[in-house]
């Protein structure tokens, strides 16, 4: 198969979808890999390293899309890429369709095959291609939140872990999945007073068993969230419904319950955000303020630590990419139910219910295309 790796062009996105090590593995099976020049430079990988691994370097993004049967990316295509994707071309990346209708309709129009990292799902309901970036984003949410609590950055001016004789900051985490768990571990390690909320009692029991003593668990409900907001300094939104739009757990009116300088970090921004006042931001302009509350809503948080993120992502995606390349997307998805669940749009038809529901689009049975 001819595989293309374009350079990511989203604002401040420095990750790359394939490391030289991953390129070498694909080349071993006889696949042709085309990498756009400097695609890996932001993550610390040179064109020479890719060439030594058996990949070919192409001068521009148009060449990569034009030559490839399968495109492997990190982030969803942006408007400049819509016209480069052609009918029957397989695109393997994070799409997050349910949060952005123009992207959805563009991929319907170009009749490509869209296989989304975020909806590849194992039998135990875990999301193997979302987990590594969720781990990075969860840890980063506290790292960034701690920074924006500083007064020069418009925060409350509180040190997350406090000091002897001074109480630490209080951190509220909405969601006890991968992101929430990693955020809690990070916040607890820095010495904060942490509360993690979830609607699953078995999950809360599990978290209570594994977390250090400065992490409390609490059942999530609107009443309980409203009760805790006035006393917390950093709030992390970590709610995910696979392939669907995130629910708003913090509404606009709840901002008035918080103290000025409270920091909100919405890790669910890719899926529309679990905070109603969330709007996607970039690493260039990461925050904005509404009602004296600092909002950090960067849509590609792991892009700020591209070396770590690229290695973690390739570790997870490469086995699936090999199956797609070796067998073709149809056979690979027939034989692997995890990959089959990753199919969102096929040749103009939406085959993932969460996307259909988000925009009231017709839903088609994926089995009809395999």
Please provide a written account of the structure.
This protein has helices spanning 20-28, 47-52, 61-67, 79-82, 101-110, 131-148, 178-189, 201-210, 222-228, 306-327, 329-335, 337-340, 353-359; strands at 2-5, 32-36, 56-58, 70-72, 90-93, 113-116, 170-174, 193-198, 215-219, 234-237, 263-266, 287-290, 293-296, 343-346, 349-350. The two termini are 19 Å apart. It has two domains: 2-120 and 306-369, Rossmann fold, CATH 3.40.50.720; 131-304, Rossmann fold (3-Layer(aba) Sandwich), CATH 3.40.50.720. It is globular and about 65 Å long. With 370 residues, the chain is an alpha/beta fold. Belongs to the AlaDH/PNT family. It catalyses: L-alanine + NAD(+) + H2O = pyruvate + NH4(+) + NADH + H(+). Residues 4-137 form the Alanine dehydrogenase/pyridine nucleotide transhydrogenase N-terminal domain. It holds the Pfam family AlaDh_PNT_C.
Topology record:
Layout: E1 2-5, H1 20-28, E2 32-36, H2 47-52, E3 56-58, H3 61-67, E4 70-72, H4 79-82, E5 90-93, H5 101-110, E6 113-116, H6 131-148, E7 170-174, H7 178-189, E8 193-198, H8 201-210, E9 215-219, H9 222-228, E10 234-237, E11 263-266, E12 287-290, E13 293-296, H10 306-327, H11 329-335, H12 337-340, E14 343-346, E15 349-350, H13 353-359
Parallel strand pairs: 1-2, 1-4, 2-3, 4-5, 5-6, 7-8, 7-10, 8-9, 10-11, 11-13
Antiparallel strand pairs: 6-14, 12-13, 14-15
Helix pairs in contact: 6-7, 10-11
């Amino acid at each position: 198969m001819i595989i293309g790796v374009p350079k990511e062009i989203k604002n401040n996105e420095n990750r790359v979808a394939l490391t030289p090590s991953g390129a070498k593995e694909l080349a071993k099976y006889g696949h042709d890999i085309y990498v756009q020049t400097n695609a890996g430079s932001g993550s610390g990988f040179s064109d020479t390293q890719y060439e030594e691994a058996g990949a070919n370097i192409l001068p521009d993004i148009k060449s990569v899309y034009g030559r490839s049967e399968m495109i492997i990316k990190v982030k969803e295509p942006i408007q400049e890429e819509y016209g480069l994707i052609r009918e029957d071309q397989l695109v393997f990346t994070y799409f997050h369709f349910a949060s952005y209708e123009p992207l959805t309709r563009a991929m319907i129009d170009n009749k490509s095959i869209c296989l989304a990292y975020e909806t590849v799902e194992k039998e135990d309901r875990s999301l193997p291609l979302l987990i590594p970036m969720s781990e990075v984003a969860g840890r980063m949410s506290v790292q960034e939140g701690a920074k924006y609590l500083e007064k020069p950055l418009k925060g409350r001016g509180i040190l997350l872990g406090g000091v002897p004789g001074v109480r630490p900051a209080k951190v509220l985490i909405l969601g006890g999945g991968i992101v929430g768990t990693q955020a809690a571990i990070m916040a607890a390690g820095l010495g904060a007073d942490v509360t993690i909320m979830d609607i699953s009692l078995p999950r809360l029991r599990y978290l209570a068993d594994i977390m250090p003593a400065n992490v409390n668990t609490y059942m999530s409900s609107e009443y309980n969230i409203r009760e805790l907001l006035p006393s917390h300094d950093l709030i992390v939104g970590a709610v995910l419904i696979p392939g669907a739009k995130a629910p708003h757990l913090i509404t606009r009116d709840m901002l008035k319950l918080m103290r000025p300088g409270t920091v909100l970090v919405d890790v669910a921004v890719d899926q529309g955000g679990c905070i109603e006042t969330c709007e996607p931001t970039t690493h260039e302009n990461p925050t904005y303020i509404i009602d004296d509350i600092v909002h950090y809503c960067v849509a590609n948080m792991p892009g700020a630590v591209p070396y770590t993120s690229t290695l973690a992502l390739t570790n997870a995606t490469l086995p699936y990419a090999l199956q797609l390349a070796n067998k073709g997307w149809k056979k690979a998805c027939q034989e692997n139910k995890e990959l089959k669940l990753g199919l969102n749009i096929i040749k103009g038809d939406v085959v993932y219910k969460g996307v259909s529901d988000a925009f009231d689009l017709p839903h088609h049975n994926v089995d009809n295309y395999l």
